[in-house]
Amino acid sequence: MIFTLAFRNLFHDRIRLAVTLVGILFSIVLVAVQLGLYLGASRMITANIDHADADLWVMPFGAKSFEDGGLLMGSRERHQALATPGVEQVTPIVVRFSEWRKPAGGSTRVVVVGSDAEEGAVKPLSLKNGTWEDIKAPDAIAVDETYLKDLGVDKIGDTAQIGPGRVKIGALTSGVRSFTQSPYVYTPLSRARALVGAEGSDLATFHLVKVFADQDVEQVRANLLSRLEGAEVLTKQEFRDRSLRQWLFRTGAGVALIGGALLGILVGTVIVAQTLYSSTKDHINEFATLRALGSSSGYIHKVILTQAGLSAVIGYVLGMVLALLIVVASQSTPLPIVMTPQLAAGLFTVTVLMCAISAVSAIVKVTKIDPATVFSR
Amino acid sequence: MTRKKQAATAARKQSPEPVLSATSIVKELGRGAGTVMALKGVDLQLIPGELTLLMGPSGSGKTTLLSILGCIMTPTSGELTVAGTKTAGLSPDELAILRRDHIGFIFQSYNLFPTLSALENVRIALDVRGQKGYEAARRCEEVLREVGLGHRLRNYPGNLSGGEQQRVAVARAIVSSPSIVLADEPTAALDGENGNAVMELLARIAHEQDRSVLAVTHDPRTLPYADRVVRIEDGLIVGEERRPEGLDAPEITDLTKRRKAHA
Ligand SMILES: Nc1ncnc2c1ncn2[C@@H]1O[C@H](COP(=O)(O)OP(=O)(O)OP(=O)(O)O)[C@@H](O)[C@H]1O
Ligand SMILES: [Mg+2]
User: Which residue of B99, B101, B124 is the best one to mutate when testing the A interface, meaning the one whose CB has the most A CBs within 10 A?
Assistant: First the structure.
């Protein structure tokens, strides 16, 4: 009967139900989009770090993110690192902003990422057309298909110019976006050095360190730090966090996204609280009658909470449908929204919590019911 | 007089153990300068098997007294015992349990749930008592049939006449077999025929099911159904008449007329 009563109360006033659902829907969509953008941005920012097969990253002191390394390390550091106890492998990579000159004129900034994949370093995330072998061909590079237009090219085999060198599209990646909006250009290490003006040198931006499986990563880090002056050694997780902090929080982008999500939750809560309160007020005589009939206050609270829960479930389903449509539509934009099962579950929890909190004012209202009002209608 | 009724009368004579007993009930309403002494020391006992009418002018404290007897209001002073339990010092939830276990209510404006069917309106009274499921539903149907609404189970209050709605309310009040049924102006919103039907029902509940029924009323047409009439004026009980043993319904009406002629 609790469910029946809650259900009927809810559907009794269709307009109020519509307002409630719009409130929940609005807030779910807003929160989903904001957090989905946040997730999408985070993935972009950390994609290269996540894909590199490294336990530790050796970088010039103070490097703020993957794109912020500079060309400050050479083979001396590499050999010092290799000689450090516990280190199995050290792979140099080059990451450098550079100028891309379109075949038809005009230019744009790109991030050249150079690594020798066979040593297990940064690999272009998902090659769509072509293989790593194609990238090793003369002048070959890989770029993401989404940026072809920005780069003024349109297919494999097209050529352009980076700095002093000619490049040719050898392979395409799919869904490798760049948070800075400067496309990543993947190429083998030596060609990358040439493209960023360090031809023939041993310079690198990072050294990716693999630790022997039986070694303690923290111990190896300490060993590395004692040998490498002016360098920092971060774990994969630390470097991810640092990059995220740099792009999402120093720039304020993440704060805006999370702030937007919180605002969505707040507005949703206020709308649901308001409609639930007014519904409870409308049905207050019925609740007073229940009380006179001897129901416990818990029984009445359950009716209100069930009403809130029902709104939450219906609102969530509608909200998710809309949110998923938006997610799908965003996939071809520079900043795609990401929806994961965890985010969906989190949104459900948020919706239920939001509705439960909304029920508080209504519950406070019924707690103050004077059952004596049943005689004076 | 029916046999059942005779048996009930006999039982009453042997053990007039009251199921509800109020002593020196005082109730002040409002605050500060606006304080009204709605009840000024009321003594009243209800025994099983009797339909008692509480009559008095408007503002005399009838509803207030009913609320206190029904454990919905607490008295400012005085003592109330319901089914052997003293109510002094009980919390609102404890009072709710007392109501739930022993008291059924009937209201002037029915107080049915507009969004629930007749059957559901009765079922909710069992539901708040934790009685759910098939057995409970069957019991509710049975009681609705008893009040003559077997053919209206699925109707919503909006589609029932006033008399039918009040009978649903009566079913709701008695479905849990309370020993006490309290009704505030149960016929005030009904025409003569429907009012009589409801009063007949209340009398039957008292006599055949051996419950104490107390009904507040203004309505002289209800007098024929009473076993006992209690009169209240200005917060005090000013008179009480009981139908003399062996007299049938109309006699008490005459008694009242005589009393009026006297005054
Ligand atoms: N909340 C309140 N605050 C102050 N005074 C009140 C309040 N409720 C009722 N009263 C007063 O208490 C007295 C008794 O009221 P009560 O409702 O019990 O009368 P009643 O006999 O039921 O009247 P009626 O026949 O009109 O229903 C009246 O004088 C009324 O004005
Ligand atoms: Mg009254």
Answer: B124
Q: What percent of chain B has pLDDT over 90?
A: 75
Query: What is the distance in A from the centroid of ligand 2 to the CA of A91?
Result: 91
Q: Cβ < 6 Å from ligand 1: which residues? A: B 29-30, 36, 38, 56, 58-64
Q: Long-range CB contacts (< 8 A, 24+ apart) of B240-246? A: B245/B9, B246/B1
Reduce the DSSP state of residue B249 to 3 states and report it: coil
Calculate mean pLDDT across residues A188-214. Answer: 88
What is the ipTM, given to two decimal places? 0.84
A163-194 pLDDT, tens digit each:
888 999 998 988 788 888 899 999 998 889 98
Q: Between chains, do A375 and B132 touch, taking CB under 8 Å as contact?
A: no
Q: Say yes or no for a CB contact (<8 Å) between A294 and B129.
A: yes
Residue nearest to atom 31 of ligand 1 (CA): B59
> Which residues 6+ apart lie within 8 Å of B40 measured at CB?
B26, B234, B235, B236
Q: What is the tens place of the pLDDT at every residue in B70-93? A: 999 999 999 999 999 999 999 988
The alpha carbon of A372 and the centre of ligand 1 are apart by a number of angstroms equal to 12
- The model carries a pTM of 0.80
